[in-house]
Specification:
Elements: E1 3-8, E2 15-19, E3 38-42, E4 48-50, E5 56-57, E6 65-69, E7 76-79, E8 85-89, E9 93-98, E10 131-135, E11 150-155, H1 176-185, E12 190-194, H2 195-208, E13 216-220, H3 227-235, E14 239-242, H4 245-253, E15 261-264, H5 271-278, E16 282-285, H6 290-296, E17 303-307, E18 314-316, E19 319-322, H7 333-344, E20 350-354, H8 366-385, E21 388-393, H9 411-426, E22 435-438, H10 442-445, E23 449-460, E24 464-468, H11 477-481, E25 487-489, E26 499-504, E27 513-520, E28 528-532, E29 552-556, E30 562-566, H12 571-575
Parallel strand pairs: 12-29, 13-14, 13-22, 14-15, 15-16, 16-17, 17-20, 20-21, 21-22, 24-26
Antiparallel strand pairs: 1-11, 2-10, 3-6, 4-9, 5-10, 6-7, 7-8, 8-9, 12-23, 18-19, 23-24, 23-28, 25-28, 26-27, 29-30
Helix pairs in contact: 2-9, 7-8, 8-9
């Protein structure tokens, strides 16, 4: 029998699971991503209600449907075509009444992933009886009021999760056979990176901005600071974005010098300016006080870059994409002019303009909106200072979809949006015109990395816990930010996700969890868990707390082989710096 799924997800991990009775499938959806999402149910919940304090109800669905739209953040969402609404009470249980509400269709339920109305929908057969279960663990920090959102997924028989349509699946470009081979060749845990995937992403980005004069991507070294990865970027014609002494030395050891290095640092030791200038790097000043500091440590160059912070909230259309007013980076508009005039008096002739106003943005208008701001600001500064406006650096911020229901950014569409902003600002595109560059990290390598880890322990108390041989020293994001990383069990992609687990590491910290209340297939000791999207800010953020050591890195090469590119740390490494 086929299985179907209906989910309501909140930041406190409240879920509703729909099942045909022979198993459950689960996908979570963060409420922050759910503007204008919609769900169609077959004729719904006539005279049924969510009862405050109760845990379930069991409607029978028929051939019609009811549509629910997320209207806004707050306390309610409305049912299309009627005055009925559900109110969210204290973040725990929903209550309200739905009566005889129809969307007019007769084909059954469908899933919509959001903005694209041309999505291919999967339909639920008519007259499908279902049971609806409510699962609501409480948040650690108490209960908050948040909006609801929901959707239905049609699961094909056997529970083949990646085959669902209408959703953006995590990166399943590599087969489980590759993961098994890698885990046979190297002891877990380790991060596995896909060389072909990285090269393809680089080429896609270059194609998206091929219209731009002298476009160059400066890969953000902090995202994945491994020399073998950096050499791939150098081979593909990219530069490197460095923000520390060690990152500059990594660039040097990879043979990258001169204007192929962008040095963007803040509150750094003055000696780092000396090193950057000795390598011929382009210097990006973060603060007005950095100009006289640079003068004393390496000297003021002919080409200088300045970092802009416009303050307030950064918006494009109706979307708020960042809050630079709370960011420590960059200068005010007046400080930009003052810094450039200071540098001009000491020999600078050309300048670039840089800004980083949003992190992991999945709004495709972010780069075009940022480009428009920088183009117009740069033109004005050119008039005010008499310096030549040489380039715009869009920095990073283009995001990736960590969750299955999130849409991937279309880099070609983003590039086209920036092209239109360029034409609006400058009228034409000329080879000697204002150049364009970027400093993406997460977008370039994030989806091309996986953390492979073995299940080594299972514990059943008030929850079911799967203990794995990785911990936050290998991947800190879930512990530090509560970040979602998709997990699948190798060899069980087609198994029903009918068990609820917390997936934990071995640190003596209760936040050392890769997943909380995650539906997975029944998992056994020795199973290989694959944690997705660890190719950026993964091992790079690793640490040695609790005496737990950082893991290895392995490259899945273009010729279908494996190469160890960083060994795992040993106790000798841990003690090596003690005196």
């Amino acid at each position: 029998m086929e299985k179907y799924f209906f989910a309501v997800s909140l930041p406190i991990e409240m879920y509703v699971i729909l099942s045909s009775g022979d198993g459950r499938i689960f996908v979570s959806m963060p409420f922050k991503q759910l503007f204008k999402r919609q769900v169609c149910l077959q004729e719904g919940l006539d005279q049924k209600r969510f009862v405050k304090g109760k845990g379930h109800f069991s409607p029978k669905l028929s051939a019609q449907g009811v549509v629910v739209h997320v209207q806004r953040f707050g306390e309610r969402f409305s049912v299309a075509g009627g005055k009925q609404h559900l109110r969210f009470q204290e973040g725990v249980i929903v209550h309200g009444r739905l009566r005889d509400l129809f969307c007019g269709g007769t084909k059954g339920a469908f899933v919509s992933s959001g903005a694209n109305r041309n999505d291919q929908y999967q339909y639920m057969p008519k007259e499908t009886p279902v049971n609806l279960f409510l699962f609501c663990p409480f948040a650690r920090d108490g209960v908050e009021k948040h909006n609801l959102a929901c959707y239905i997924v049609h699961e094909i028989p056997g529970g083949n999760f990646p085959a669902m349509k209408g959703l953006n699946m995590p990166n399943f470009a590599l087969s489980d056979e590759v993961f098994f081979r890698a885990a046979d060749a190297f002891p877990t845990p380790f991060h596995l990176y896909d060389e072909n995937g990285i090269r393809k992403t680089i080429r896609d980005v270059k194609a998206a901005f091929s219209w731009a004069p002298s476009y160059r991507e400066y890969f953000a070294v902090k995202a994945l600071p491994n020399p073998q990865i950096l050499k791939i970027f150098a081979e593909e014609g990219c530069g490197l974005d460095c923000s520390s002494q060690c990152e500059l030395l990594l660039a040097q050891r990879c043979g990258v010098r001169g204007d192929a290095i962008m040095f963007s640092a803040n509150a750094m030791p003055p000696s780092e300016y000396d090193l950057a200038r000795s390598l011929g790097a382009v210097i990006n000043l973060d603060d007005l006080s950095d100009a006289p500091l640079l003068e004393k440590h390496g000297g003021i160059p002919e080409l200088i870059s300045v970092r802009f912070n416009p303050g307030g909230e950064f918006s494009g259309g109706t979307a708020i994409m960042g809050n630079p007013g709370e960011s420590k980076y960059g200068m005010t508009r007046d400080q930009l002019r003052e810094a450039l005039l200071y540098c001009r008096a000491r020999g600078t002739k050309r300048f670039g303009l840089h800004a980083f106003l949003s992190s992991n943005s999945t709004v495709e208008s972010y780069y075009p909106s940022l480009a428009s701001l920088l183009f117009q600001t740069g033109k004005a500064l050119e008039k005010e200072t008499g310096l030549v406006f040489d380039f715009v650096n869009l920095s990073g911020g283009v995001g990736i979809p960590y969750r299955p229901e999130e849409k991937a950014n279309d880099i070609l569409a983003i590039g086209e949006g920036v092209r239109k902003a360029y034409l609006e600002a400058f009228g034409t595109i000329r080879e000697d015109g204002v150049k364009l560059c970027s400093e993406m990290g997460r977008f370039m390598t994030g989806p091309q990395g996986w953390l492979l880890t073995r299940v080594v322990h299972e514990k059943q108390i008030y929850r079911d816990y799967l203990g794995v041989d990785a911990c936050a020293s290998c991947l800190m994001r879930p512990a530090m930010y509560g970040a979602y990383h998709h997990i699948h069990i190798a060899g069980k992609r087609n198994a029903p996700c009918d068990h609820l687990y917390d997936v934990t590491g071995c640190l003596c910290e209760n936040n050392d969890k890769f997943a909380v209340n995650r539906m997975l297939p029944k998992t056994e000791i020795g199973d290989l868990a694959v944690i997705h999207d660890t190719g950026a800010h993964g091992l790079a953020m690793g640490y040695q707390y609790n005496g737990r050591l950082r893991c290895a890195e392995v490259l899945y090469t273009a010729n279908d082989g494996f190469r160890l590119i960083r060994r795992a740390e040993t106790p000798e490494d841990y003690f090596a710096t003690l005196v």
